[in-house]
User: Fold this.
Amino acid sequence: MQTLGERLQEARQRLGVTLREAAEFTKIRTDYLQSMEANQFESIPLADVYKRGFVKVYAKYLRLDDEKAGADFNTHHSAKASRRPLEAAADEDAPFEPASGVSSITMSRDTMIYGIIGIAIIAIIIAFFI
Assistant:
């Protein structure tokens, strides 16, 4: 079975497009395209979300299924998926609880607007009588 990089390279060659032409059209740096085709996604110094986006843009340009390419990237190359400990995932689901003794004040947007308008009216009245 071919790797994602091999499929990208094969599709580009089948279309007769150079890396430089692909880079100009997709606005993805040539060295990033080379890294993707070499299946060396870890050498691209960007967050996985950008790499996945580049893979999808490049795949679409090469007339491949961009959703499948993005899914393949997620499955095989996502650093978060492979390095994330299971304990960290459990902590992320826990609801946020403020420290004890700290009260929270909540105010709706409308209440805040009415308060500001009220303060402005009082300031105008005071300025009128002084």
Observations:
- The chain has eight helices and no strands.
